[in-house]
Amino acid sequence: MWNICSVLAVLCGVFEVVHGEFGPHSDLITSLPGLQSTLPFKQYSGYATVAAANGRNLFYWFVESQSSPSDDPLVLWLNGGPGCSSLGGLTSENGPFQPTRNGSLDMNEFSWNKAANVIYLESPSGVGFSYSNTKSDYDNPGDASTAKDVVTFLVEFLKAYDQFKGRDFFISGESYGGHYVPTTAKAIVEHNSANPGEAINLKGILIGNAWTVAGDDNLGVVQTWLGYNLVREASGNDVVKYCNLSNMLPILEERMGVRLGLDLLAEGEVASEAQCQAALAQVSRETGNIDPYDIYQLMCLEDAPRHRTAFLQKMADSDAPLRFHARNALRRMQLEANGPCQMEHSQAYLNMKTVQDAIHAKPTRWSECNMQINANYSRVDFLASMIPVHQYLLKSGIRTVVYSGDIDGIVPTHGTRNWIARLVATGAIAVTKPWRPWADSATQVGGFVTNYGAQFSFITVHGAGHMVPSTQPLRALDVLTRFLKNTI
Ligand SMILES: *[C@@H]1O[C@H](CO)[C@@H](O)[C@H](O)[C@H]1NC(C)=O
Ligand SMILES: *[C@@H]1O[C@H](CO)[C@@H](O)[C@H](O)[C@H]1NC(C)=O
Ligand SMILES: *[C@@H]1O[C@H](CO)[C@@H](O)[C@H](O)[C@H]1NC(C)=O
Question: How far is the CA of 104 from the centre of ligand 1 (A)?
Fold first, then answer.
């Protein structure tokens, strides 16, 4: 066939380099703004086309293992939302470094690439740097289409990075990853049986604070408010009484709806809708401005009225008795890696032109979550129970570990216990080693663990919020390591 490149070989070669194909040659990151030292591992980032006709491209960032890249397993990490970017996870949770306020990168001692080769993928298209040239791709994202694109990505990835073909493969994620991870695993099992030549060696899944059964997870939120003394008992009970918890998004989103004056309940909703809204508004007033993702975390006040930080600064500089508290608060708010402002620092970093150039991203206004993708995401899928998918994966021999930060107020441990009890009631799993503490690598109680046969385990992470690796990085790496070695 006539090929213009055979005529203009030199030019085409140049074009390829500039334009950037998918794979290790074009996507190697050769330098990164803010790095203070040379990295002890290789990393790659760029776009993979998952639907050429639509021009649909997913952005990935792949960090090789710091231990033994040629032997360590391959792990995919997916943040949730839906609509949130896995680069948020990379830069503020379990990646090798975290941007500071001034744009430098702090190394993360507990990065997950200490134990595995980790792919961070932004999906579905529209999230982060991922995009489609066909705007209608953004109209109706849902679990099936999202999983299909991830499988297409993985097949292409294993062709381009062919030394990882056949490597033990695991999928991990958090929050709405409670849908993304099992539905992607199921799509892989189906893909493997239809295309044995392109099989992906999926061994297991690891899901954290996983949105799984709306009614169970939302009931868990109320149990958490009551258990941690955040609301009056009567107010919590009113939410259970007046709201249909099975027909609600995570309660936070409904509460934001209350604040914004939006009607987020479905059409034909129960007659008590107004009472439900009133009950949600009441608990919202009672909890106040705490961080529902991590109920003992401070809020980031960098965007707060300036007089607030100015006040703290003045107090910190004074000899007032509370100056130490003020200094501590300022430090935690503004400077510390993994503090409450980490996401703001990550966002600023990923929006620097020098950074976008270095990681081969198109010029983009990057944000942690694309709330339009979130709003357009299939409500039916959002509310669908993942119990049947878990049953399918158990039958298919896929190992599942469910972990849970135990001070999350969004998709809390209480809710996870509710839906695991439901899975037990189906007969799919049964307790073999009951609830007991586990010791982390600092020999403290890291949380509590229950085993349900060889294929299913539940492990809590004590003192962790919704984003477990960001508040308990050591324990999160312990969980990953044990999950990979099958020693939970
Ligand atoms: C940036 O912040 C980090 C961590 O707070 C600090 O170690 C570093 O010295 C700062 N760099 C500059 C150029 O200010
Ligand atoms: C969401 O869907 C509507 C149509 O249902 C579309 O007009 C809009 O562009 C979509 N949102 C985004 C972010 O594309
Ligand atoms: C609550 O919502 C679920 C899911 O939409 C629905 O099946 C159920 O009938 C609703 N319950 C009541 C009492 O309206």
Answer: 6
